[in-house]
């Protein structure tokens, strides 16, 4: 089965790549999760758009990643969350909420899959969150969870 990847898939390729995979892997994993689209003449024209979007979001090299790390570590990120009277959250702060808060605080657009917390954030207060920019560069972003 020939597919066009719409997102980076480990051990397979990056967004915009045309890959040949077994039918079951494509039909049962890649297509339902939106990681790929079927390849045909019509969708082949979308490859250039996918590659342009990937290049706009991609970190060019380690020096560029170091600049972004410095920018991220200086941000004052606040995440509003619903809490009870004792300050515990109803649920936990998700990586998607963290990515949106970083963008709102004036930072760059960060992929939610690059954001990792040491443990789930379930209380208000200050927390440190890791953002993996490249294999060699990781930013530690201070996040303040406040009651909404």
Automatic annotation (TrEMBL):
Matching InterPro entries: Ribosomal_bL9, Ribosomal_bL9/RNase_H1_N, Ribosomal_bL9_bac/chp, Ribosomal_bL9_C, Ribosomal_bL9_C_sf, Ribosomal_bL9_N, Ribosomal_bL9_N_sf
Give the UniProt record's GO annotations in the biological process aspect.
Answer: translation
Q: What is this protein called?
A: Large ribosomal subunit protein bL9
Task: Identify the gene encoding this protein.
Answer: rplI
Q: What does this protein do?
A: Binds to the 23S rRNA.
Family from the record: Belongs to the bacterial ribosomal protein bL9 family.
Q: Which organism is it from?
A: Brooklawnia propionicigenes
Q: Which UniProt keywords apply?
A: Ribonucleoprotein, Ribosomal protein, RNA-binding, rRNA-binding
One of the record's GO molecular function terms: rRNA binding
What Gene Ontology cellular component terms go with this record? ribonucleoprotein complex; ribosome
Q: Which Pfam families match?
A: Ribosomal_L9_C, Ribosomal_L9_N
Q: Which domain of life is it from?
A: Bacteria
Ribosomal protein L9 domain segment(s) = 13-40
* HAMAP family in alphabetical order: Ribosomal_bL9
NCBIfam families recorded: L9
């Amino acid at each position: 089965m020939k597919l066009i990847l719409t997102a980076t898939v480990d051990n397979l390729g990056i967004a915009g790549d045309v890959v040949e995979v077994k039918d079951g892997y494509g039909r049962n994993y890649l297509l339902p999760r939106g990681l790929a689209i079927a390849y045909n003449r019509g969708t082949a024209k979308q490859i250039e758009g996918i590659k342009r979007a990937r290049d706009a979001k991609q970190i060019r090299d380690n020096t560029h990643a170091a600049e972004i790390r410095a920018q991220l570590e200086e941000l004052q990120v606040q995440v509003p969350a619903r809490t009870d009277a004792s300050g515990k959250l109803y649920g936990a702060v998700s990586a998607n909420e963290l990515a949106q808060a970083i963008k709102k605080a004036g930072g760059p657009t960060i992929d939610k899959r690059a954001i990792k917390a040491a443990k789930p954030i379930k209380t208000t207060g200050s927390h440190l969150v890791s953002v993996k920019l490249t294999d060699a560069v990781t930013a530690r972003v201070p996040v303040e969870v406040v009651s909404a």
